[in-house]
Write a structure and sequence with these properties.
By secondary structure, this protein is α+β, with helices and mostly antiparallel strands. The protein contains 4 helices and 3 strands; from the N terminus they run H-E-H-H-H-E-E. The chain has one domain: 50s Ribosomal Protein L17, Chain: A (Alpha-Beta Complex), CATH 3.90.1030.10. Helix 2 runs antiparallel to helix 3 and helix 3 packs across helix 4. The longest helix has 20 residues.
């Protein structure tokens, strides 16, 4: 077996790691928040940060570079049209990692990897129940 020169590959070979990180980045762009292990989140964060930085340039070369990184036209379109304009005046730090505890099966540390939203999200207030009218 060929040993990796740049350290461990998150449990598999380099091609599997590349595909896994690409899928994590696409899911993060589409859903704005994903639940994953801490090790995967730390590595995927750099890929997402690069993609958002390219998308802020908003030119054809940047779009092609993001397509090369993500290989998903739908995600790149959402990245350029919705995500990148939010971070126009931000220099970096587009993602955050929130620890949520350990996974019950194998005790792996789990986290939420999410995009930092500049505007606060509105919390939905619970609907008040009223007594049925007679």
């Amino acid at each position: 077996m060929v040993k990796p020169k740049k350290g461990p590959r998150l449990g598999s070979d380099s091609s599997h790691q590349k595909a896994m990180l690409r899928n994590l980045a696409i899911s993060l762009i589409e859903h704005k928040r994903i639940r994953t292990t801490e090790a995967k989140a730390k590595v995927a964060r750099s890929l997402v940060e690069k993609a958002v930085t390219f998308a802020k340039r908003a030119d054809l070369a940047a779009r092609r570079r993001c397509l090369q990184l993500l290989d998903n036209e739908k995600a790149v379109r959402k990245l350029f049209e919705e995500v990148a304009p939010k971070y126009e005046n931000r220099e970096g730090g587009y993602t955050r990692i929130l620890k949520i505890g350990d996974r019950p099966g194998d005790n792996a540390p789990m986290v939420y990897l999410e995009l930092v939203d500049l505007e606060p999200q509105k919390k939905k207030s619970p609907k008040k129940r009223t007594a049925p009218k007679k």
